[in-house]
Amino acid sequence: METAFYVAIILVSLLLMMVILLQSKASGFSGAFGGDTSAIYRTRRGLEKTLFQLTIGVAVIFVVVSLLGQWLL
């Protein structure tokens, strides 16, 4: 049982890293620090919206698996 939680948390964390790295930022960090404010308020569409929602879902799964691992072990 303990090994299954360790494997699950490793797989979910790798998936979370992959999804985060797949998200592309057109202007890099300049928009976040005042460079291009139009990039902050733009609408996500298509694949970008799907990746954003997938990132939120995988992050929730990561938190749930982590809490279950701490609670059950």
Number of self-contained structural domains = 1
Helix percentage: 55-70%
CA radius of gyration: 16 Å
Give the count of helical stretches.
2
Shape: elongated
Q: Which structural class fits the helix and strand makeup?
A: mainly alpha
How many beta-strand runs? 0
Residue fraction in strands = under 5%
How do the SSEs run, as a string of H and E?
A: HH
The end-to-end span amounts to 9 Å
Low-confidence stretches: none
Topology readout:
Layout: H1 2-22, H2 47-72
Description:
The chain is mostly helical and 73 residues long. It has one domain (2-72). It contains two helices and no strands. The protein has helices spanning 2-22, 47-72. Helix 1 (2-22) runs antiparallel to helix 2.
How would you concisely characterize the structure shown here?
The chain has 73 residues and is an all-alpha fold. It has two helices and no strands.
Short descriptors:
mainly alpha; 73 residues; single chain; elongated
